[in-house]
What we know:
Strand content: 35-45%
Number of strands: 8
CATH topology: Immunoglobulin-like
CATH architecture: Sandwich
Strand order of the largest sheet: 1-6-5-4
Number of helices: 0
CATH class: Mainly Beta
Mean pLDDT: 86
Distance between the termini: 62 Å
Amino acid sequence: MQTNLEHTMPGAVFTPAVDIFESEEEITLLADMPGVPSDGVTIDLHNDELKVMGEIEPQGSENETSLVREYETGRFHRHFSLSDRVDQDKISASMKDGVLRLVLPKVEKAKPRKIEVKSE
């Protein structure tokens, strides 16, 4: 899916499809970024805004002539606003098979818990 934002750099810019899951302990974000290697992903965190960027390099070599080119290359870009429920110091990321996994642990005060009632 291409984004409708204006860009000042040439080339296609894609908005990765994202699934977000929540458990009591964390929020997990899965971003579909096919063709992007793990070293082609950049994740920036600034002022409670998480920016995810990735770049797909053109395939093939200088010795080859392109006959058909249906696979687009360009950049992926998506950003998210984080709430104070996320422990920003403990965010982790991994990439496997073109899917970026971001794990956003919740801060202790945001985790549900039971409070024990003591008899006096």
